[in-house]
Design a protein that fits this description.
Length: about 500
């Protein structure tokens, strides 16, 4: 990906909020000279403020910690890592014994709301900046609308009712508002994405490559609608992307997850979290992704820190791949797999008693590719393949729906996506077609952190995870808990309840 890799500094925005700029977009500005009183004066100010709204995506509150949990709480993976308290925040989630002080619970809430407020500042301030190029001004507003919708979509799916801010609070006291019903939050998300679709450009190039496009907004809107069970609307927006965006799927599934393809992240990708080579230090709020290190096989010396071995694929998930499915080799290390240095994946390792590890985010440890702890591999948030699966789920086993899911399946088996396959295509007689689509999502989007949300929205979370816990116990894996109704949402962070008397905890916590 080509966004300029320029170090940024933090700058002070209204209400004393210290905003860290995204490292890829911004130029330096002395933090002690930039305030709300003298900022938002120029077009460059508008661009910097917009870039700042992206930066939380790369950090612990999103894709460098919190989002990993949504496969660990599902039937994709278990925590892994070492014994004792190593990764205790994930072990609590895995066990469905989640205190309101859980680190992941706190980071997701806090990071998402920082992103929301940065987007709100753009929407409030940028319209009044004089002498802006109207194209850039419109783009900045669209990006802020898209990002606010993305952050709120994660919040409402994870916590249920959440405070809804559509403008920066006018005072410190104004931060303390009660939770807004989820239906109203979804209504705002829908409107933001429709507005973003109108304001955003269809594509970018050069240093702007990686910004949200109108197709990112359309794809995310389709996903929002399918989450709400609004199938006609989901189908409408999925078709918008498929027929008008010009997007195409990579011939090979694994090409979605190669650093060498990031300068082409507009091919199948609708939106990616942008990472770059890091700063040679352990910091999950840095410019690089930590998944190469954290998910790397533990002690195998294949990553700069020798691998931490978190997010271990569960045996029945691994065994659930159909024979010939190329996604397995792109997603999972299995015993006997050969590493870049010629060593092999072991049959058993600390945290991985069956010899499985997540491979999808593996980069290795070559200095030109990754520095200590950090990886430059982007994380796709929306891909064209997912849009096809949304369309299939929305319209069912109609010719349109069957062709949509079968394109994804053909690619999975290394076949041309437009050529029917008697061996692998689903047919109109496929039993439980919706279940088949959700299962296809499980393998297409594995370790892209959607599975818990899919199980929850389809009413499958409790029965699937209850059966999963029983199965794992037969293998001697006892840490998986059994969810109850309260686990359909996360607890509200205790620190937020202490600070805001208007908030109420979710039932059961």
């Amino acid at each position: 990906m080509n966004i300029s890799k320029i170090t940024c500094s933090a700058f002070l925005l209204s209400l004393g909020l210290l905003v860290g700029c995204t490292e890829k977009f911004l130029e330096e500005a002395p933090a002690d000279q930039v305030t709300d009183a003298n900022f938002y004066q120029t077009q460059q100010d508008a661009i910097q403020a917009t870039n700042a709204a992206y930066s939380e995506l790369t950090k612990e509150g999103q894709y460098n910690l919190a989002m990993w949990a949504f496969d660990i709480m599902a039937d994709i993976s278990v925590t892994g890592g070492d014994d004792g308290n190593d990764g205790i925040e994930y072990k609590q989630l895995e066990a469905f014994s989640i205190p309101s002080t859980n680190t992941v619970v706190n980071r997701l809430w806090g990071g998402s709301f920082i992103g929301v407020q940065r987007a709100n500042l753009v929407l409030q301030k940028v319209p009044s900046i004089p002498n802006m190029d109207p194209v850039i001004q419109k783009r900045c507003l669209g990006e802020a609308q898209f990002l606010r919708a993305k952050y709120y979509f994660d919040l409402v799916r994870a916590y249920g009712d959440v405070p809804l801010f559509t403008a920066p609070p006018a005072s410190p006291e104004a931060v303390n508002i009660p939770r807004t019903p989820a239906a109203e939050v979804y209504k705002q998300i829908e409107q933001d994405l429709k507005d973003a679709y109108e304001n955003l450009q269809p594509s970018y190039s050069g240093t702007d490559l990686g910004r949200a496009t109108k197709w990112a907004a359309a794809g995310l809107l389709a996903k929002v609608y399918i989450t709400e069970g609004k199938k006609p609307e989901a189908a409408q927006w999925a078709r918008e992307v498929i027929t008008k965006s010009g997007k195409t799927m990579w011939d090979n599934y694994a090409d979605n997850f190669k650093v060498t393809n990031e300068n082409k992240n507009e091919k199948e990708s609708l939106f990616e979290v942008q990472y770059v080579n890091g700063r040679n230090q352990y910091d999950r709020n840095n410019v690089g992704s930590s998944m190469n290190e954290f998910f790397g096989p533990r002690g195998a010396n294949q990553t700069p820190g020798s691998g931490y071995g978190f997010n271990i694929p569960e045996p029945d998930f691994v065994n659930g791949y159909e024979a010939g499915d190329t996604r397995k080799a792109a997603t999972i290390w299995v015993p006997g797999d050969v590493f870049p240095d010629g060593a092999k994946q072991s049959a058993k390792a600390t945290g991985s008693p069956f010899g499985y590890n997540c491979k999808k985010w593996f980069v290795g440890k070559k200095p030109e590719v990754t520095n200590i702890w950090d990886s430059p591999l982007n994380v796709p948030v929306m891909r064209l393949a997912e849009v096809y699966l949304i369309l299939a789920e929305a319209v069912g086993p109609t010719p349109e729906g069957l062709e949509a899911i079968n394109k994804v399946r053909r690619r999975a088996f290394g076949l041309p996506i437009n050529t029917p396959s008697a061996a692998h295509d689903l047919t109109a007689g496929t039993a439980n077609f919706t279940d088949a689509v959700i299962n296809e999502r499980k393998y297409e989007l594995a370790f892209e952190f959607d599975r818990w949300f899919d199980l929850k929205r389809t009413g499958k979370l409790i029965p699937v995870m209850t059966a999963q816990a029983a199965y794992l116990r037969t293998l001697g894996i006892t840490q998986r808990g059994i969810p109850t109704e309260k686990n359909l949402v996360l607890p509200i962070p205790q620190s937020e309840l202490d600070a805001n008397p208007g908030l109420k905890q979710n039932p059961g916590y």
